[in-house]
Amino acid sequence: VSDQKPLGCWSVKHGQIITCPVVCNFETREYIAVHDDKVLRIWKNEDINLDKVFKATLSADVYRVHSLPNGGPVVLFKGGGVRTLDVLLEAPQQEIENVISDEVIKWSEAFMEGQQPVLIFTTEKDGDFFIYVQKLKMNSLHKYKLEQQELSKPLSFTAYIKNQIITLLCLCSNDSLYKVLIPLQQNTEEEEQILSKSLLLNLSVSGSVLKGASFVVLDKDHIAVLGSLATSGVESKECLMIWNTKFQTLQTSKELPLGTSGQLWCYEEKFFFTHGKVLTVIMYKCETSSLAAAVGKLKNSQTPDVSSFVNWNTLGDEEPVLSLQSQQSTALKSESKMTLRSKRNTVAKVQPDTLSVGQLLLNLKDASTTVFEDELRQLMSKAQMPDFQATIGCVVTALINRCKTNPKYYPRNFLLQIVQTRDLSYSLCPDLMAVALEKKDVYLLQVCLQRFPDIPEEITYACLKVFLSISEAYLQRVDVNLESVICYIDIEFNNKEVKTEILENGFNAELEQDIWDTKITKETHVTTDGESCPVGPQKAALLNAVLHSPYSETFLLPHLKNLPAQQAVLFLRYLYYLYVKCSEKINTTLPGIRSPTINQIMDWMCLLLDAHFTVMVMLPEAKELLSNLHKFVRAQVRFYSELNKIEGSLRELQRLNHQKDSQTYSIEVLELI
């Protein structure tokens, strides 16, 4: 998700329904799904068709499959029965006991307590709620009844386990959060115990009530609640809030105007929830809670007592980062932002050490260009500050936002310096490449393609289209890194053929100077053996950067189909040239730094032909190219076929040579049949 790149897609047949969330088996790296309540499917990443993967029909309906990192998958049936996946696969049609009678499972979760898998689930019957705790290895099951209150009904649950105690948190319909403690060590044989609830948090904000839909535990002192904020006489607004349960304060909140599905997930200090029609990912950080941080009185942002840090930038807010640690209510939100805005005219007087990243960037919004860039450089120089990588992403976003508001402003050198020296990714500054495409800054695009691991296929295609459309004459006037091409492209200077080679004795100053001082006069670069490169070295280097960029074939192919036919033919000519060049080498490897590999060249050729095969066949200028490509591939297939025929004989010869005494001189004639 952090790379924003889909990796695979699988679908069941028409009429079949996936009835519980798909999970991953951490031990075998397999996916596990259940469709139509009883049909179990297991497959690996390389599998394409679900109809051909492992299938098992079970004897009872499945409620949920839970996957534990060190305990394997656990299957919970709607009747309350529990099996590990290994036991279940030994006999898929084994009878599953019915633990609950006329009860409906509402929620479940699995944990590892040491080496012991533990499953907890809640059920409902006639308004009463029950809690079941199952220890799989000990095969012990305990049932509890949840204390019920009038006018209060549990809406959602979450739980965590620590020191042999399960802490169950329950969000109820009276807009309050309750805590229930369940000890794992039970000495009593009592069949059913009643568990009391203790009030943990009241979800009311200055007269407004948060109607919680779902919530997650961030740490021992913080929770995040997704729901709608209802005020009498005012339309309710959906929002995400972070609360400090220790001091009963609201730490930060964010309205979600596009609406949500009500589902909230948390994994590795990131929130996941739907906002409108997209899945939104927001980074957060919770550290040691303190009263000063909870009430917004924390003065030094460098201390470890920062209660929460949330990067709201994913939601497209105008502020790059919003760290509203001083909020206790939504009423304070506007007041806090107004205070920050009033400080913008006094940037020079405020010490950055005392401000959060969000506050500093807000204050710099209207600063002069010199002050703006100097402050950002000073911010990046603080290598010890927390969330350093996220901060660099915010700095780039601040620069890009200024570019958007002021079209004449484009800090190319500053952006290049950041991208080349910092460990950035596309997801940290998604607008950077869009602006570079708009400015046709091919060098910055080249560096981004080489360094970013998570570029979406749409942007990769946009770069390819720009590189192919720009003239060679323009490219000769701009900076391009030629490391990937200078060692294998043969360039024609003033109608004189020059072969560029890697010199064994190091650097040749005269040749190097001559190469860079001579003007290239033709777009076609002829090699000594008659093969020609259809593009100049600058364009070749840019195309190589595209070849190196990671992609998913499924999601790149639709974009490639939109590539103009002439550009597609030119790109295929270049790929064919690289293919021939690779085949000249014994190890099929091109010399140079970041040169394309034979696999990358082949994959892109196949992609391009898949996207444009019909057009290529119809184009007269592509006919000879396709014919040459076909002949070359056919010749290579025959060559490797002949090698395969003598592979056994060569191995036998190698074995015989090892057996003989190397000191003995002999001449032997071996006939290969």
From TrEMBL:
Report the InterPro entries cross-referenced here.
Answer: NOL11, Nol11_C, NOL11_N
Where's it mainly located? nucleus
Please verify whether the record's keywords include Transcription regulation: yes
Please give one Gene Ontology molecular function term for this protein: RNA binding
Q: What's one GO BP annotation on this UniProt entry?
A: maturation of SSU-rRNA
What UniProt keywords apply to this chain's record, in alphabetical order? Answer: Activator, Nucleus, rRNA processing, Transcription, Transcription regulation
State its location(s): Nucleus, Nucleolus
Give residue ranges for domain Nucleolar protein 11 C-terminal.
359-672
Determine if Nucleus is one of this entry's keywords.
yes
Specify the Nucleolar protein 11 N-terminal domain's residue ranges: 1-285
- Cellular component terms per the entry's GO annotation: nucleolus
Give TM segment ranges: none
Identify the PANTHER family for this entry. NUCLEOLAR PROTEIN 11 (PTHR15633)
> Mind telling me what this protein is named?
NOL11 protein
Organism, as annotated? Steatornis caripensis
